[in-house]
């Protein structure tokens, strides 16, 4: 008990206005073991007596704060370990009507907890959570009407939103419990002091709509849209710092996701304020030491010291809103496609310069993401308009790849550039572009090798320890991620330009060959092989002139200890058979026993190996289909059939199903078996493929599979025999296929 009282004292001191007391308390607090800390905190949250002994309920709200912080910092482990205790303690505390401040902090902690809580953990508590939140919301709504107090209601509304966001479709039964009250708040909370409440309620309604889906939300959609429109038309009267603005901007984007194409009619109302917010120019200043003394970071300024007694200051207010607005423009372009075409010109003129907006990473990411989406929107206006737009963005994108300082943002820019090339196709880059791009990619690859050497050197340092290793591993992951984006860009270039681009590629050839050397880390070898896979797939038969560089490493990699490397090598054999040409024939023959060895290994279907194994099965299928002279098809075919279906790699699954259809349609005796005795097995393969979504209703492959089934359907006895071996899920899958294909 004494320990608990000491802990209460410590919590009170954490909130102390005295800096020294607070700092000492923080140091002591950090030394308490995690499990003990949580036990004491939950006791403090629940224990109303703590509030009586301490003249302030601050002990309890300090405890709520701490739980909220832990829920964010240690998610989802914290949620998995303590869900039962934390949820009940916070709900109990939220009911403490005598301490609104404690209620509000408990609600805030619940928001933190549910935001990162796995859905499966939250569902068992959903009923209790929702009933509690509803009771508190109704009580607080009454309080707002009678006394004008709103602090707890603001937090409760956000708690409801957070629970709905995590629960998704499981929230449907509770929808009618909340929606009338929430709409009531938006309609009536029009006073200036209720702006934040109104904004949070707008957010809550849109999150609930997204969670429950279009069908459930539709009856209210029109009324909600009218409320939002009314707020929007009053926007002109809102002050620039009105908290409703950012909530509105996000709510519109959610409504767009819910309504899809039907949202287009609202764009004329929405786009004005959105463009205004996205166009915010930050306040910046160059200050000397004298000026600095009159400014403080509390006024929303951040400073970078430039030396020589000078600092660069930027006012951060409005930057988050700008980033959100840019992200929403991305959302509209993505959801509405050609429905957004009217706005593509003004948005592209806004976004291209923002690739250099170094004050906020999120703005640059949104600018990059928007580029391929805007091109897709613009397609509807014909090739000339599309090409003009591409010319407007192309130079800026290439330059941004060369100059972007942040690796997360850089990967987004590279990814978007690759998507743009795929969209625009052959002829989209001129000689200057190729020259600049070649230099940049060469630089990225050289930097990749240099960074690896530097990390190896740091591992030999006397200061080297676990923490250093952790940092080095993070750096390594970043580097590999950039390497994947180099591969994306090369993939886009090869698939658009085919063998015409090989002379340009030769400046990078030696660096890619270095990636696949046996001593390099597995990720280097994986991505090096992926690049050569693209060369074979898109630039054959000319690709064979580089065979001396990659064929041996590719063959050896089929038996590599890393599944990722095996997968890249197996895919290479598949495209070699499909696209490579005559020169690759002996290598297809050589690969077959190696591929079969991988497939038949004892652990080939384990979680870490299954993708590589499925690529091997697909490669064997492609050799039999496109290069039957390289393999004894009759010998391999029964084995291949026994390895189907592919469940993980959906792309390769379609290849195998198409080949299976070829074989069935040509009445292959090995596949059908004597007197069609293999048909039940084939039905099983097809049913599993449909159930695992390896075949989709809309692709040509599923139509062919459906026809196979229909042919069996007409011969009664055989049909009964085939269907009787299937379980309920498989029978439903066959029925679904017949209904959709």
From TrEMBL:
Position of the signal peptide: none
All copies of domain Importin subunit beta-1/Transportin-1-like TPR repeats, residue ranges: 136-288
Cellular component GO terms, alphabetical: cytoplasm; nucleus
Pfam families recorded: HEAT, Importin_rep_5, Importin_rep_6, TPR_IMB1
GO biological process: protein import into nucleus
Localization per record: Cytoplasm
Source organism, top-level taxon: Eukaryota
InterPro entries in alphabetical order: ARM-like, ARM-type_fold, HEAT, IMB1_TNPO1-like_TPR, Importin_beta, Importin_rep_5, Importin_rep_6
Keyword Acetylation: yes
Predominant location category: cytoplasm
Swiss-Prot/TrEMBL keywords: Acetylation, Cytoplasm, Protein transport, Repeat, Transport
Protein name as catalogued: Importin-5 isoform X2
Organism: Chanos chanos
């Amino acid at each position: 008990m004494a320990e608990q009282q000491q802990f209460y004292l410590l919590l009170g001191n954490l909130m102390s206005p005295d800096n020294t007391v607070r700092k000492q308390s923080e140091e002591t607090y950090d030394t308490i073991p995690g499990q003990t800390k949580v036990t004491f905190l939950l006791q403090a949250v629940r224990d109303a007596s703590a509030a009586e002994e301490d003249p302030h309920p601050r002990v309890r709200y300090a405890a709520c704060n701490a739980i909220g912080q832990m829920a964010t910092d240690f998610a989802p482990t914290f949620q998995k370990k303590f869900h039962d205790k934390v949820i009940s303690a916070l709900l109990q505390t939220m009911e403490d009507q005598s301490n609104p401040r404690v209620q509000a902090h408990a609600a805030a902690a619940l928001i933190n907890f549910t935001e990162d809580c796995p859905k499966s953990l939250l569902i068992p508590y959903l009923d209790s959570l929702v009933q509690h939140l509803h009771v508190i919301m109704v009580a607080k709504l009454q309080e707002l009407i009678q006394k004008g107090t709103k602090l707890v209601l603001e937090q409760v509304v956000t708690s409801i939103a957070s629970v709905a966001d995590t629960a998704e479709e499981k929230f449907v039964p509770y929808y009618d419990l909340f929606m009338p009250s929430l709409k009531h708040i938006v309609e009536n909370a029009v006073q200036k002091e209720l702006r934040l409440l109104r904004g949070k309620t707008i957010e809550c309604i849109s999150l609930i709509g997204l969670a429950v889906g279009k069908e459930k939300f539709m009856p209210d959609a029109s009324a909600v849209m009218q409320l939002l429109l009314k707020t929007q038309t009053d926007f002109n009267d809102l002050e620039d710092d009105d908290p409703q603005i950012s909530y509105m901007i996000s709510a519109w984007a959610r409504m767009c996701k819910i309504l899809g194409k039907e949202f287009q009619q609202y764009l004329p109302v929405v786009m004005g304020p959105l463009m205004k917010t996205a166009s915010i120019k930050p306040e910046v200043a160059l200050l000397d030491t004298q000026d600095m003394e009159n400014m403080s970071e509390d006024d929303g300024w951040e400073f970078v010291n430039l030396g020589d007694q000078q600092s660069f200051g930027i006012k951060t207010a409005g930057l988050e809103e700008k980033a959100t607005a840019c992200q929403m423009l991305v959302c509209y372009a993505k959801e509405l496609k050609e429905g957004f075409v009217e706005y593509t010109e003004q948005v592209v003129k806004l976004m291209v310069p923002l690739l250099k907006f170094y004050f906020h990473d999120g703005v640059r990411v949104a600018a990059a993401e928007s580029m391929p989406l805007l091109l897709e929107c613009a397609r509807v206006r014909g090739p000339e308009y599309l090409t003009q737009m591409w010319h407007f963005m192309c130079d800026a994108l290439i330059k941004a790849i060369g100059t972007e300082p942040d690796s997360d943002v850089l990967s987004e820019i590279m990814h978007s550039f690759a998507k743009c090339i795929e969209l625009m196709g052959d002829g989209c880059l001129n000689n200057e572009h190729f020259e600049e791009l070649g230099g940049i990619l060469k630089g990225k690859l050289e930097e990749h090798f240099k960074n690896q050497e530097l990390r190896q050197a740091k591992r030999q340092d006397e200061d080297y320890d676990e923490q250093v290793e952790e940092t080095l591993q993070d750096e390594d992951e970043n580097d590999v991620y950039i390497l994947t984006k180099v591969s994306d860009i090369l993939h886009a270039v090869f698939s658009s330009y085919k063998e015409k681009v090989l002379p340009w590629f030769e400046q990078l050839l030696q660096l890619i060959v270095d990636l696949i050397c046996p001593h390099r880390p597995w990720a280097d070898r994986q991505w090096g092989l992926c690049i050569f896979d693209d060369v074979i797939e898109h630039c054959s038969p000319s690709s064979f002139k580089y065979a001396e560089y990659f064929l041996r490493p590719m063959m050896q990699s089929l038996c590599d200890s890393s599944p990722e490397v095996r997968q890249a090598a197996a895919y290479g054999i598949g495209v070699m058979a499909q696209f490579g040409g005559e020169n690759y024939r002996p290598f297809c023959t050589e690969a077959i026993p190696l591929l079969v060895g991988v497939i038949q290994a004892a652990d080939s279907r384990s979680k870490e190996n299954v993708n590589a194994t499925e690529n091997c099965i697909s490669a064997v299928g492609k050799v039999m289909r496109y290069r039957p002279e390289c393999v004894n098809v009759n010998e391999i075919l029964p084995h291949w059939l026994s390895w189907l279906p592919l469940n993980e790699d959906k792309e390769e699954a379609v290849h195998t199903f198409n080949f299976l259809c070829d074989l069935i349609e040509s009445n292959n005796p090995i596949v059908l078996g004597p007197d069609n005795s293999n048909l039940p097995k084939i039905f099983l393969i097809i049913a599993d493929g449909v159930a695992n979504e390896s075949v989709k209703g809309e692709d040509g492959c599923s139509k062919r599979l459906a026809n196979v089934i229909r042919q069996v359907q007409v011969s009664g006895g055989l049909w009964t025999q085939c269907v009787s071996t299937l379980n309920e899920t498989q029978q439903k899958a066959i029925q679904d296929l017949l209904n959709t294909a």
